Please model this.
Amino acid sequence: MKKSLIALAVLAAAAGSAQAQSSVTVYGVLDMAFNAENNGQYSKGKGNIYSLDSGVQSGSRLGFKGSEDLGNGLKANFKLEMGVQADTGASAQGGLAFGRAAWVGLSGDFGAVQVGRQNKPVFDVVDSIDPFGTGIIGGSATDSTSATGLGNLVFATNPRSNNTINYTTNNLSGFTGSLAYTAGEQAGDIGKGRGIGVSGSYAAGPLLVAGAYHTENDTAAVVNATKTAFVGATYDFGAAKGALSFAKIKTDNNSVAYKLWSVGVTVPVSAAGAVISSLTMVKNDVVSSDNGSNQFALGYTHSLSKRTNLYTSVSRLKNDAKVNAGGIASGIGATERLFNVGIRHAF
Model:
């Protein structure tokens, strides 16, 4: 009995020592909203559709992240993050177990290296500039029923990439940069499916300037790469924060060729609330006429605490006769109207 108690004491001491050297955090987000859509893809041009949707402001998720202190400033890090459809309980990202992130890496004075499934550098840059972030109606990178914004062009395929090695610098007097390489893993040709991304941002007081470039080869033909370039800036005037951005998306075979301009503003109206709005204009260079699209979005967020907030937004997107601005927007030549109201809780 005494030997057992001694063994348990030794194990407890060892566990305490290990815990002092490493940490694991369980976290998540639950986001649910009521959506109303008129003349969009999900209503198939047949009038209105009403729904309860998950992940409208930001994707609902459950995650695990942690680090281990290896000494001399070196750390081992990991992140496993699964997307959750809170309205049904199903997995998001096509049912992947950890569709939002699954990587391991090292960090230190040299910066950070991550290996696995993770965000493309251009995703994080766009998210830092767009006043709607990656969600609500005007957002940059959502794939929910409410998405009609910038990201439906920039991220028409996927804002994340598998089989990726990513290096990110530490903060260098306001500058941070990332470089990512994605292995295509196609037999017989190292170039098929290969992706390369680079980004950089500079922050100085109220000013943020950022840019990114991403090229991704088709898995069937190296010559048909999709290339995305983005540049943007924000400036916080105190009473309001303005945002400007430009993006260009093009394939080598010219089947896709878009230019996109966006201007936005965030206006705090109280200690807990802020009004956000954006105007996005798109030009489809594949065709020479009736090739424009524009979207106006207006939203409001209200914090109930540090972890819980309410939100609402409305948008109108108008496509010319030869444009469908985004993978989930209204059809060619159609006008789509969207409204939502929701709640987001982080834990």
